[in-house]
Write a structure and sequence with these properties.
Blueprint (H helix, E strand, L loop, with lengths): L3 H11 L3 H10 L4 H11 L21 H41 L1 E6 L2 E7 H10 L1 H13 L2 E6 L6 H27 L1
Antiparallel strand pairs: 1-2, 1-3
Helix pairs in contact: 1-2, 2-3, 5-6
Length: 186
């Protein structure tokens, strides 16, 4: 016998009319799960994502057990691919934020207090990654020719970073003076 509570529960879950819910439950002798399965098979309600039908009855003779095992394998594969796609999304989001920060911050090359060149930090990092043996010696030679380097921007425009860059420039200037002074004494 079908109760009013069962009909209301099926109506609420399946979003169907009272009569449709009552008929579906009468066909299955009040088994709500079987009624949902029958409604899915008839196309009256949408099956769960990932596909398949689920049953509370023993599936040994009909071959439904094999299909449910295949579904379980598919679901675990979907979870793996879902987590992989989540990982890819997080990675691309991280890289996007990194590029955004690198483009907001500037690497500035100056000589005699006048800016000679400015580069986004992203470009500097790419140069260092792909042309390290060219970029680093060029920067060191630039220090000996009186060029100074500094960073500006919301993340890298900090006093500590630029103070360190100025200290490196001062050390190189002192080395040049010592070297020049030693040559003059000879």
């Amino acid at each position: 016998m079908v109760t009013l509570q069962q009909v209301e529960e099926l109506r609420r879950y399946a979003d169907i009319t009272f009569n449709e819910a009552k008929e579906a439950l009468e066909e299955t002798n009040g088994d709500i799960l079987e009624a949902i399965i029958n409604l899915e098979k008839k196309g009256r309600i949408e099956p769960p994502k990932g596909g398949g039908y689920y049953s509370t009855k023993d599936a040994g003779e009909t071959g439904e057990q094999k299909s449910s095992e295949a579904k379980a394998g598919t679901e675990s594969t979907q979870k793996t691919s879902s987590s992989f796609s989540d990982l890819v999304n997080r990675f691309t989001t991280f890289v996007g934020k990194l590029f955004h920060k690198g483009n907001r911050n500037i690497f500035e090359v100056s000589k005699n207090g006048q800016s000679t060149m400015t580069l986004p930090v992203t470009v500097l990092v790419i140069l260092l990654l792909f042309t390290f043996w060219f970029t680093v010696p060029l920067m060191i030679i630039g220090l000996f020719f009186g060029y100074k380097y500094s960073f500006s921007g919301p993340e890298l425009g900090k006093e500590e970073v630029n103070r360190t860059m100025d200290q490196v420039s001062d050390v190189v200037d002192n080395l040049k003076k010592e070297f020049s002074g030693e040559n003059k004494n000879d």
